[in-house]
Amino acid sequence: MSTPAAMTFDQQRYSVEFGAKAWVIVFTCSLFFFYEFVQLNMFNALDAQLIATFQVDATRLGKLSAIYFLSNVLFLFPAGILLDRFSVRKLVLVTMGVCVFGTYLFALSTSFVMAETARFLTGIGSAFCFLSCIRLASRWLPERKMALAAGFIVTMGMLGGMVAQTPMTLLVAHVGWRHALVFNASAGVLFLILIALLIKDYPANLAKLYREQKNNQRQLGFLRTLKLAFINRQNWACGIYTALLNLPIFLLGAVWGMPYLTTVRHLSPTHASVVTSMLFLGTIVGSPLAGWLSDRLGLRRMPMIAGAAFTLLFICATLYIPHLGFQALLFLFLAIGVISSAQIISYPTVAESNPLFLTATAVSVVSLSCISAGGIFQYWFGRLMDWKWDGLVVEGMRVYSKTSFDIACLIMPIACVVSLIAALLVRETFCRLRDNV
């Protein structure tokens, strides 16, 4: 029998009793992810007002939304490296503070350039929000709970996405988009206070172990640790899978869902906002369910493959079945949200496929792929919309036809096919950590 001195890092880590405190810490940190997802997805509620305020077309609106992703991409790898080496709590407080400031600045923007700058600042915080949650979960929770934890973290993000739909739409209609964003930023200040009070970097009795882990990491050096994350093909397969399976959220949930539903499916703006909210509700339900099912089965690859295949089926039904009514669209958007939630399984898969001291850096590969795809495809969706625009302008705003949406929406079924191929290339981990030496 091993003595405490001879126990491995993981044995000592899992000898800790993980209880309610661990979950409180992880959920409190996930408020950051919730807040960032509001910022990511609020353009559905703001797009008409922003087009009118700044006098822009779909391409420039897509660019304004995509600047969030550009900022995110630039800071993702630094975020992963910093979170593996320094205090998660301090980094969360600083970067979420930058995000809140960016939201206030966006509300006060008097020019398009000022709005772009504010959007860029908001995206910096987004680079840290999910990684910090996963980093804390890997320190406070055992591996058998990681997929479930990832599911609940994503659920918090999707709750933010839902808040950015109908509630934000109603708030904007009642007080205007600028005042709505001031309320938004003020909520961020309250979250910052909670995070400052409740988050801890790691269990107190494991402080010595984590210091030793950081020393080992420093001995390996920055370039070698980065190389370990970059050359692992499992990380990139999971990254591509997650990125492309997330496109319905990035395209329909964040920017174009309401215009698509009002133009192509002839729903009212209120009904359209309810339907787009179903994507987030589905992900709220599906993310912990996918995590629980994967943990229960002891498998990662098979649920990922099934998720990609069924997402493709429901996306094609949504786009190509004619004469869909409000209730049918509610069901289809809900189903897409539930089934595409299989993308969260990528995160524990990556965590299990890399040394423990590389968790945040390795997961940043997945996040980089995901956010890059969001920015790229939001931009190209807008470009395709403008390509088929017939020149119609109503009250100073461009009006797009069904043909424009039909062409641009081809992105999503193609992406689902590629995500299925990526899932087939993932190596099964059987929910076990690799050797962490």
Q: Can you give me a brief rundown of this structure?
A:
This protein is mainly α and 437 residues long. It contains 20 helices and 2 strands.
Describe this structure in words.
A two-stranded antiparallel ribbon has the order 1-2. It starts with 8 loop residues before the first helix and ends in a 12-residue tail after the last helix. It has helices at 9-14, 20-41, 43-54, 58-85, 88-107, 112-140, 146-163, 166-175, 177-198, 207-220, 222-230, 233-245, 247-263, 269-297, 301-320, 326-340, 346-352, 359-387, 402-408, 411-425; strands at residues 393-394, 397-398. A hairpin with a 2-residue loop joins strand 1 (393-394) and strand 2. The chain is an all-alpha fold and 437 residues long. The protein has a single domain, classed as MFS general substrate transporter like domains (Growth Hormone, Chain: A, Up-down Bundle), CATH 1.20.1250.20. Helix 8 crosses helix 9 (177-198). Residues 1-17 have low confidence and may be disordered. The protein is built from 20 helices and 2 strands.
